[in-house]
Predict the 3D structure of the following.
Amino acid sequence: MLAKLFKLSELLVFGALISPQILREMSWRGYVFAMLAIVAACPFAFSLVLLGRKMSWLEWVTTAWFGPKGFASIFLALFALQSDIPNAGRIFHFAAIVIATSIVLHSSTDILVAKWYKQKAP
C-alpha cells in the first residue's frame, strides 16, 4: 500500500512539472530523437531481451512495441532534475517529452494492436 502511495505521489509531481513551456522549448531535433527512442530504440532494446525465446513473429512485435513500461523512467527523470549535473533541466524536458509521448502512443494504440493481434493470431 505504501509503495502505491509513493508511485502515485511520484506521478503527481511529474505531471505537475510538465507544462506547455516544455513543449515550446524542445527543438524539432528533440522531438525526432524522442520519436526514435520510442519507435526504434526501446523496441530494439527489448527485442534483444527476447532473443532465444520461442515466440511467434506476432507475439514478438506486440511485446517489443509495448515492452516493459513503468515508473522507473519517471523516477530517473525526476532524479536527474534534482541533481546538479549540467543541463539537468534539458535532460528532464527531453525525458518528460519521451515519457508523455510514449504514454499517449501506447495507450492510444492498445486497442488497435489487440484487434490486429486477434485477427492475425492462429
